[in-house]
C-alpha cells in the first residue's frame, strides 16, 4: 500500500458515518494518505485523548485547521459540531475572537451578552496523542446598567457552540486569541489577562465594574443599531414570551419622544393592531399582527444567526453532508415538533426564479407525509443522481433543519432533464409527472379503468364535470364521484396516493368560485370489482344506473347502485323506464350479509394558486387543527438583483376548525367573514393530495 506522508498535521471532522464505525462529528488527525484517498490517523475521544486509530475515506471527512479542531473538540455532543460548522459566518467569527470582544451566549436557558476574557486550553499539555481542547472564559455583561457583573459563583468555560452571536467585525480591532495562551483547566494558578478598566466611581455598584464607553456602545449596537426596516427581530412581551416579526416602520410616533419600531409579527396576538398606533396608521398588515415598541426593546432574531451590520443572507453550509447523512432517511416532522421546528420566517423551501410550483409541491409531498418515501428505495441512482439530491439536499434537510436554501433547489432543478424547469413557470401536475415517471421511474400512482376496458396508468386525475351536475359550492368528494361516474371510470385498485386537480382552466378561469376540500375521500363506490351496498336498502348491490345520478327524487348527485329487488322497483317508475342500469362487477361468493368495508383516503395537502403564484396548506398530524400554510416567496430582502426571497410557514388552526364543520355548514358559510387562510383554501384550491388512511 503506497502512502503519501504529510509533514503538517491534517485535522478533520467526520461528516458521514464510516464503515469502520466512526460517528459523524468525530474529530481526528491524519498522519498519512493512501493512494486510494483514505486517511490514516487517530480519532480523539473525550478530554482530547486519542480514542482509536485506523483509516477513513477522505470523502467522508471535512478538513479543519488545528485551531478549529481544538474549538470543536470541546463541543458536545458531536452532532452540535456539525451544526455549528454549517453556520459559516458565525463559526468563522468565533475562530477569530479576540480578548474583550463582545459575544452573546446561551446561558441558563437565556441569551446573555458577554466579554471574552480568555481562551482556555483544556487537557494535559504536551502529552503524546492528546489534542488540547479550547474553551472560552467569559464575563457576563448587564446591558441595563452597563456593568460587568462580578458574580460570586464562577462561570463555566463556554464552548464555541454556546456562542450564538458575535459583535460586528468592524468593532473588533484586537488580535484574535490563539492557543499561545498557555492555560490549563486543572491548574490552581491561572494566568488571566485583566484588560478591564478598574475605575473608582461613586456610581459603581459594589462587586461591579463600569464598562468604558466603547464597550457600552458596542453592546447597544449589538442589540439594536443594526436593525432597520425589513430586519427580522424579536421582542420579549410583557408575559415573558418572545415574539418574532419583521420591522415595517421605524420613527417617533405621536406622543412619544424616543425612536420606536413597528413590527409585523409572525403570529396573531389579540392585543396587537393592523398597523395603527393610537389614532394614526404607520403601516398596513393583517389584523392582530402589528406591535409597536421602543426600538431599544428589539434585537436581531436569534433564530437566524448572522453577524450584525452585515447584509443577512441565507447561509450556505460548508458541505451539504454536514447535516445530512446519506445513509440515513429522516422521518417526517412529528406533529408535536412542527410548531417549534417549522413555524416562522426563513422556514420551509426558499423560492427562487419561478420556482413556487416546485417548492410548494415538494413541501406538500414530503414535510409530513410518508406516501412518497418509497420512491427513494425503488429508484436506483448514483450518489450525485437526482433522487439522491432530492432525498439528501431537500427532503432530509427540510425534515431535519426546517429550511432548504434556494441553491439546493436550483441544483435539483438543473438536473430535471429539461432546461425550462430551471427557468420557467410550470404547473405542478407537469412537474409531478416528470418527477415520478421520467426521473424516478416510479409506476403510475393510479390505475383507472375506462368503459370496461383495461386499466391505464396515471399520476394525477383531472376532474371533468359540467357545472350543473353538482351544487354551487361542491366538495372534492362530489366532484370526484361525478367525474368518474359521468365518464364511466373506475379505480382498478386502491391508490396509495391520489392527486386530484380541481376543475379550472389555466391559472385564471375557475369553474367554481369555492370548492370544499373533503378531509376524507370515500372511493368505495368508484372501485372496480369491489363490494358495494344498495343505495336504498343497504344490501349488496349488483347494478349501477348512471341515468339515476341526477334524479331529483333520489338525492341528485349521489351514486346510485341497487340490489336486484330495488333495481326492479326503482325502474318500474315511468320516468325511469328508459334507463339502462349496468351490471356491476363484484367479488365472487360474497356473503349476502357481509358488511361493506368503506375505502377512505385522507387529505394531507392542498396546493392553491392566485395570480400565478402557488402556495400550499399541509395537514401535519391527526389533530383536526394541525394545519400549516407555506409560501416560498412570502417576502423579499434586498432588491431584485442582490436580494433573496424569504419563505414563511404559518400555523393556521382556523383552517381545521372550518373543515370540522358539516358539509352543509361549509357550503353556506359567508367566506368574507372567514380568515384569510380559510378564504385562500376555499377560493384558490388547485390540487388536493390524499393518502391511504392505513
From TrEMBL:
Q: Does this entry carry the keyword Hydrolase?
A: yes
Q: What Pfam families does its record include? A: CAP_GLY (PF01302), UCH (PF00443)
Cellular component, GO annotation: centrosome; perinuclear region of cytoplasm
Supply the EC number(s).
3.4.19.12
- Gene Ontology BP annotations: protein deubiquitination; proteolysis
Where primarily located? cytoplasm
| Gene Ontology molecular-function annotations | cysteine-type deubiquitinase activity; metal ion binding
**Main EC class the enzyme belongs to:** hydrolase
Its annotated compartments are:
Cytoplasm, Cytoskeleton, Microtubule organizing center, Centrosome; Cytoplasm, Perinuclear region
Specify the domain of life of the species encoding this protein: Eukaryota
Give every CAP-Gly domain span: 251-294
Asked whether the keyword Heme is assigned, the reply is no
Supply the alphabetized keyword list.
Cytoplasm, Hydrolase, Metal-binding, Phosphoprotein, Protease, Thiol protease, Ubl conjugation pathway, Zinc
Q: Which family does it belong to?
A: Belongs to the peptidase C19 family.
Per its record, how is this protein called by name? ubiquitinyl hydrolase 1
Q: Which organism is it from?
A: Carassius auratus
